[in-house]
Design brief:
Shape: elongated
Number of domains: 1
Radius of gyration: 17 Å
Structural class: mainly alpha
Length: 71
């Protein structure tokens, strides 16, 4: 489970860096504020969903460690 979480965290870090590159890069120099805002909101929602998945994966891993043997 941890390797999945680690991979997800690495991907989210790359996605966040890509957002910074998008905002500061040449692609947005001629874009409207509406277009940039829409793109940011969509990508941030996706990032938030990924963060929530990691939260649930971590929580599930913790609970399975504490759960005793099942009969």
């Amino acid at each position: 489970m941890t390797s999945n979480v680690d991979l997800s965290v690495q991907q989210m870090q790359q996605d966040f860096q890509a957002l910074i590159a998008y905002v500061t890069g040449p692609e947005t120099r001629t874009a409207t504020a509406y277009t940039v805002e829409l793109t940011l909101f969509r990508r941030l929602l996706a990032l938030g969903a990924a963060l929530l998945r990691v939260f649930f994966q971590t929580r599930a891993a913790e609970q399975s460690c504490w759960a005793g043997p099942r009969a």
